[in-house]
């Protein structure tokens, strides 16, 4: 079959690549055309646009780049019209993908949504668009199935694809990792500042402000796939290092992490690294988000899934040097560290076992 996949972010590239791998195993004649990143490109097929040219963070940033976004939507529609896939697979990225869903449905193309948008957090009305235009909805968080049932939409809980990605990792030696990446012998605190340039610039400054309080550790920045090494050089020195495309290895060799909110918070937890979750957006974007997001107590996937505070979230004005130092010390040096690790075990139980990509591929082939 001919598959057209749209993933607009780094996490979508990861999950999309694992889905492509599962589809190839079940469909020897699979042909892929996709919007995504390097991981999806490694699975073969035609990369139409890279996600680094698509991702804009926050309401203000979207408004400033509206012309580019609209041009991308127009281009995507024409590409789908010309390519005529058997199945259109949408991976999260709702602002873009829901517009494409309506267009593709009118062309008679079968539409599968893999990884639900977070409609339970905001823009709940979009569920009506999904009900009208999407043939199969596949969710990866346990509570999402109940959300869709409430709205009369049949969905499939396939499990979380991060469990698949993590289950295939080979063992790693910390000393070897340090030597291979020119790191010193100190224990590592990992910094995951996000995947978008404007986000990284904002987050790294505050994350690195804790350095004078943790001189016995070295800090290592996890580089985003879409950003060049040169971009990070102004942040590095003798005790602040940088690695690219090795985030999972870095986390597995780290004692703790400071993580920008997003999929990375869940990845860090599943790799068993105590973390502090950080978020600071522009004042305008945050003010708008606060008014739109309803009935959501947390911003990290870890806490949302567990429905309680497992990891500390420092948001907007709470994200400052004093609070970061305090919370980081707790997960490095106190009993709090072991409480977090125990909660991570319960988190994995809630998410079920591996096999999300295979389950999703099976549903797509039967659709």
Largest beta sheet: what is the strand line-up?
3-2-1-4-5-6-7
Computed structural class: alpha/beta
The number of distinct β-strands equals: 13
- Shape field: globular
- State which percent range the strand residues make up: 15-25%
Helix coverage percent: 40-55%
* Number of discrete helical segments: 18
Can you put this structure into words, describing what you see?
With 367 residues, the protein is α/β, with parallel strands linked by helices. It has 18 helices and 13 strands. The protein has helices at 10-26, 38-41, 59-64, 66-83, 94-106, 127-133, 142-150, 161-167, 174-180, 197-207, 229-232, 247-252, 263-270, 283-292, 301-306, 321-333, 336-351, 356-366, and strands at 2-7, 31-36, 46-50, 87-91, 110-114, 136-139, 155-157, 187-192, 217-223, 240-244, 254-260, 275-279, 312-315.
Which short descriptors sum up this protein?
367 residues; 6-stranded parallel beta sheet; 7-stranded parallel beta sheet; 47% helix; alpha/beta
SSE blueprint and pairings:
Elements lengths: L1 E6 L2 H17 L4 E6 L1 H4 L4 E5 L8 H6 L1 H18 L3 E5 L2 H13 L3 E5 L12 H7 L2 E4 L2 H9 L4 E3 L3 H7 L6 H7 L6 E6 L4 H11 L9 E7 L5 H4 L7 E5 L2 H6 L1 E7 L2 H8 L4 E5 L3 H10 L8 H6 L5 E4 L5 H13 L2 H16 L4 H11 L1
Parallel strand pairs: 1-2, 1-4, 2-3, 4-5, 5-6, 6-7, 8-9, 8-11, 9-10, 11-12, 12-13
